[in-house]
Design a protein that fits this description.
32% of the residues lie in helices and 24% in strands. It is an alpha/beta fold. The chain binds zinc ion.
């Protein structure tokens, strides 16, 4: 049986995600940006929390761990780096599997934004929780990792089937679209950017996205096709084009 995903905005621009295994009713929250908001959402849904799945250690992702553990007794699963700021019961990394009732999550090492960042992929349902690695039309900043590492992490996510629904942790899409338009003249991007701006004007979320949409229009995943746009020759390694795009985004004022 599939999973239900309940998405809700919290803090300034984070999304929280409750994931419920329909077969058993076991429920996880992906990251803990705001314990209060998560408890409220659980109550509204009538669900009880079995598990936290952390993607990385940043406070807007693991800051609610202690409170949620105290209130619900849930198990906390995540990369070892979470211990820098929060409790963690089970360390996971590349190749591990986490069962939520009958739902199987595959853990991908997606280091780069932080060194230990992980993503959780439910292949059976075509659902991926990618934290701050891939965003709609964007990607996470490199606070700890190197461009080559982040490029490898993004490539892993991009290799998932195109229909995979991608739940990223922030609503950054409109500003990502403005940067994307500055480096990529593709008509597909222009059309998507217009949709994004309209959706945001109506107050609608642009998350989840899909792997297919990101492969087609996300400038970071399109780095190999944008080498000339960042002043590189065709023979340059793909990760160098990614690094140049990431640096351009870091200083973009749009
Ligand atoms: Zn982060």
């Amino acid at each position: 049986m599939p999973v239900d995903v309940r998405q809700f905005p919290c803090l300034d621009d984070n999304y929280g995600f409750l994931v419920r295994d329909q077969a058993t009713g076991r429920t996880a929250v992906v990251d803990t940006p705001d314990a209060e908001a998560i408890l409220r959402e659980l109550k509204a849904a009538g669900w009880s929390l079995s598990m936290i799945l952390n993607t990385h250690w940043h406070p807007d992702h693991a800051g609610g761990n202690a409170r949620l553990k105290a209130e619900t007794g849930c198990e906390i699963v995540g990369p070892a780096e979470v211990r820098r700021i929060a409790p963690l019961d089970r360390e996971v990394g590349e190749g591990d599997e986490v069962m939520l009732g009958e739902t199987r999550f595959r853990v991908l090492d997606t280091g780069g934004h932080t060194l230990g960042h992980v993503a959780y992929v439910d292949d059976a349902d075509g659902v991926a929780f990618v934290g701050d690695t891939l965003f709609a039309l964007g990607c996470g900043r490199l606070f700890e990792g190197e461009p080559q590492q982040m490029w490898s992490s993004l490539s892993k996510i991009a290799a998932l089937p195109p229909e995979t629904r991608v739940y990223c942790a922030h609503e950054y899409t409109a500003s990502n679209a403005r940067f994307a338009l500055s480096v990529d003249p593709s008509p597909a991007l222009r059309a998507r950017a217009d949709q994004v701006f309209s959706a945001r004007q109506r107050g609608e979320p642009t998350v989840p996205t899909t792997i297919g949409a990101e492969r087609d229009t996300n400038p970071f995943l399109r780095a190999p096709a944008l080498k000339a746009a960042v002043g590189l020759g065709e023979g340059a390694p793909d990760w160098q084009a990614f690094a140049a795009l990431r640096a351009a985004k870091d200083s973009f004022k749009g």
